[in-house]
Give the backbone structure.
Amino acid sequence: MEPFRTLTSLAMPLDRTNVDTDQIIPKQFLKRIERTGYGDFLFFDWRNNAAGQPEPSFVLNDARYKGSQILVAGKNFACGSSREHAAWALSDYGFRVVIAPTFADIFFSNAGKNGIVLARLSVEQVALLLNNAKTIPNYQLTVSLEAQTVSDSNGFNATFEIDPFRKFCLVEGLDDIGLTLRHAAALDTFEKQHDQAGWLKAKV
């Protein structure tokens, strides 16, 4: 997992509330066995019209926001089923940060384990960021995880809370496997002692 400290990027406005995980990554794509490639199917039903062609009015198809790594959305983001694929799809597409007033609890955990910073700001602050992203050309935000701030070049500055352990993992780039590997030497020692004890017991 890539460490996260500070990111400055275009802000993409997804001005919708109650965005559920089935919209983030529709169920027909959950049969894939890899953890990569889900970005192609992110918001699939919103990105494409009934004929299967890109929907010009949807923000992911707007060239103004190409390359954005910061998504700004309405409250209750990623509600619905607990599929971790939602975090995989957002990460694979390129998003490192999602800003919203509230998030579903299970998604909050899944996102952190996949290197995505979730910044909870007030409804009023998010409304301002959504409006700025829609009306100001090349509108960029800077998210500092170390300082726990979201800011822009127009004077906006807000702080967000994050669990200290989740912050540590994101700053250090540690997922569950990475956390385990930090204790690799101790695990190796335990296994050797365990194997030796078993061999001595069998010999006796």
Summary: Residues 6-173 form a domain with the Aconitase; domain 4 fold (CATH 3.20.19.10). The chain is about 35% helix and 15% strand. Strands lie at 6-14, 70-73, 97-100, 117-120, 140-144, 149-151, 157-159. The mean pLDDT is 90.
